[in-house]
Design goal:
The chain is mostly helical. The protein has one domain. The protein is about 55% helix and about 0% strand. It is extended and about 40 Å long. The two termini are about 25 Å apart. This is Oxidoreductase.
Length: about 55
């Protein structure tokens, strides 16, 4: 990341990403509207796709 932005900005960005606030954790109802199905946990996606990353 520091190849593209100053180190302080990279650190601040990673701090923000690492500590989402409650509003950022809320799953939007638009997810289901766009996907046409209920959202699933990221871990489910990982379990289905882990082989592609080995």
């Amino acid at each position: 990341m520091t190849q593209f932005v100053p180190a302080e900005l990279a650190d601040d960005t990673l701090d923000i990403i690492a500590a989402p606030n409650p509003a950022e954790l809320r799953i939007s109802p638009h997810v289901e509207q766009v996907l046409g199905r209920a959202p699933r946990p990221f871990g489910d996606w990982v379990a289905r796709n882990i082989a592609a990353f080995r």
